[in-house]
Amino acid sequence: MYQQILVFACLFVxxxxxxxxxxEILPIDxxxxxxxxxxKGLDTNYFNMDHVLQYYEVVPGAxxxxxxxxxxxxxxxxxxxxxxxxxxxxxxxxxxxxxxxxDYSKDLYRVARDSEYGALEKHSDELLAQYSFERxxxxxxxxxxxxxxxxxxxxxxxxxxTLSLK
Length: 166
What we know:
Elements: H1 2-16, E1 24-27, H2 30-38, E2 51-59, H3 65-80, E3 90-97, H4 105-114, E4 127-136, E5 139-149, E6 157-164
Parallel strand pairs: 2-3
Antiparallel strand pairs: 1-2, 3-4, 4-5, 5-6
């Protein structure tokens, strides 16, 4: 019995370590992300509806830094900057590397409510990238984007630009 369990566990670990070039991006908690974005079901005494946080897990596969950054940019563009722009006053999107032993979801609500910046500080080593968007008051159709990219780089890559919304 124990040998069967051990064999199954080893096979599971080996299959989860399999290198793949496919990048997967999934919400850590889809329902909570939607609440953070819409404000529905959140206590406005604790949550600023104009300062939105979003959290995702990423399986980077065998991607190079350039490939992963391109995938994340495409995801953010499609999900948040597309035809129906969903950018509030300030939007922070965090991408954490998927870890077999880590459950990020148990800390999300508390961190989003209590933290000034919204990052999961206990899991800073797993943070792959962070995107921050801020509307420019003088130009309502423009936003400032800051990207911090940490995946396999010795020094974090920081990119800043201004985007026009349609």
